[in-house]
Amino acid sequence: MLLLAATAALSNAVPAAAQRVSEGHAFLEAVRDRDGTKVTDALNEPGSTVVNARDISSGETGLHIATKRRDVTWIRFLTSRGGDPNIADKKGVTPLQIAASLGFADGVEALVKAGADVENANAAGETALISAVHRRDSGLVRMLLDNGASADRADNSGRTARDYARLQGERGIMMQIIEQSDEARSGKGEAVQYGPSL
């Protein structure tokens, strides 16, 4: 009799877990479809944490989806409802890194305002600033430096945003922006560090 009760309790637990998975999947599909009603209904469920649901295959959240389609309205909506901009997908990529690699300045700004860590790096060690330097996107480079990004954080190859800027030309625009940021930081009493930080 005890074994029968334990088996029944266990079988009842499986549908609840499956239901949570399907709620997360349904939420992500609603974000993909831009279905505001379904997303809002899911978020309004008492105790819901579905806003940070992750795709089982990619690890992406709703913020990854909205950022990839350059949808600043959805980014602001999801972060206002508790969406965590620092959750990385299975490759270690955060929404901020996606926005930087796309040159999506409004997205970068919205994610930074929502608390995105500008120093997060993907699996290759690449930060949003390194992506912006690779793109030669002077506006994003300035924005990220102004929000605390370090030009001296190395990726897995050992190169920093400063190194990549230098490779583009010692007096190139990227290098000039980084040097201006160094001067501004040193003028505020911040120590400027070169090389890897330990």
From TrEMBL:
- Specify the superkingdom: Bacteria
Keyword Ubl conjugation tagged = no
Q: Which PROSITE patterns does the entry mention?
A: ANK_REP_REGION, ANK_REPEAT
Q: Which Pfam families match?
A: Ank, Ank_2
Q: Please provide the record's keywords in A-Z order.
A: ANK repeat, Repeat
| ANK repeat extents | 58-90, 91-123, 124-156
Q: Name one GO molecular function term.
A: ubiquitin-protein transferase activity
Per the record, the GO terms for biological process are: protein K6-linked ubiquitination
Q: Would the keyword Repeat turn up in this protein's UniProt record?
A: yes
Indicate what this protein is called per its UniProt record. Answer: Ankyrin repeat domain-containing protein
Q: Which organism is it from?
A: Parapontixanthobacter aurantiacus
